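Run: sequence + guanosine-5'-diphosphate -> complex structure.
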Amino acid sequence: MVDLGEGLRQAIAKLTRATIIDAKTIREFNKELQKTLLSADVEVRLVLNFTKAIEDKALKSKPPAGLNPKDYITNIVYEELVRLVGPTYLPELKKHRILLMGLYGSGKTTTAAKLAKFYQDRGLSAALVCCDVTRPAAYTQLETLAKQANVAFFGLETEKSAAKIIRLGMEKFRDKQVVICDTSGRNALDDPLIKELKEVAEQFNPDEKVLVVSADLGQVAGKQAREFDKAVKISGVILTKMDGSGKGGGALSASSAANARVMFIGMGEKLNNIEPFDSNKFIGGLLGIPDIASLIEHVQTAVKEANLKPEEMEAEELNFETFYSQLKAMGSMGPLKSIFGMMGAPDVPKETLEQGEEKLKKYKVIIASMTKEERKNERLLHDPKRIARIASGSGTSEKDVRSMISEFNKMKKLFGSIKNDRGFKKRFMNLS
Ligand code: GDP
Ligand code: MG
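>> structure
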């Protein structure tokens, strides 16, 4: 079986070696992704949705300027993986009660102790209650773990009513901030277990009803989540044994698709082998990009800048040609007023604006009388003969032409100083 992360990394590497990225390369890429995801036990339906979304996104848009295709595609894959595995979970550090449920061997008892330690390490007093009344060794197991974690423990070794145990446990731990209840398991969810869990839940009134599932079940984790949810309503899932399981991605995506948010993941047998589910970290690990957050930021910045129409942003040097097209584009009073506003002078008197408009009109006809070379190379206009020709051609005076050139040079300086001001450019581009 191909490791999910390894498969994803290989597919991306192969794609980015391609010289052109077109529909055919994307489809081949998607085939690789499908193979990898299916072999990691991700549900067929999820796999197809996933690759379809990648195809749509990758073909619909081009990488924004300044972004290489590899980063772009990686980001698309990243976004879809986030959708596939669900969002990051932020544990609340407040008083609450957690009910853990799950089948035999899923890791409930271990997880109960891990959670108690997790919250205690973060400054909350934690307590464990053993409500597993089925397995003979359950009591001793949790008691031992509670000692290791240095948290309070309650249980009644021979009591058969889980509801009674939790009631007494609650009385005992009234002042504890986090109370965690471990329950009985089964080989499969059956009616007596459902009844028992419901009774415990009624006494306990938990803030979280959490299903503990082993990640090595792959997509079966999703099926379990749906079954438990239907029977006793769950608020989330903890996936254990994410260490050394190639099916982790399958379990995650299936749980997420079963509408059960993934809260924590267990990554080993030790008490500190648990962490809140962090989709960035998980996916960054899969894709072999530890710092995926900075890649995403890079992509988002590039996308934002691309929305500013890069071809306009990177406008060539200001010359009479570009000046002319800008003058034509401005045309009316509104934009000129806005431009003054943007330059930090919103209250330019009406007369000044009107004079400005007059001037701009004059400038337009003057530039219209220039040759192409003159528009592009302002130095040609140091020649008085050219100035005379332009003045008579445009029906203006030589003085008008000279003053236009000097204004233009002032603008050019101003343009140079604001050229690197993105905010200004954005506002400028939004004018038309
Ligand atoms: P329960 O029957 O649901 O209470 O499951 P247990 O907590 O007793 O765990 C069953 C087995 O799985 C034990 O051997 C645990 O040490 C092991 N286990 C639990 N969580 C993890 C984990 O995250 N990673 C690994 N590798 N083993 C785990
Ligand atoms: Mg147990």
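>> summary
The pocket of magnesium ion (ligand 2) is lined by residues 108-109, 132, 138 (CB under 6 Å). The chain has three domains: 4-85, 96-278, 292-431.
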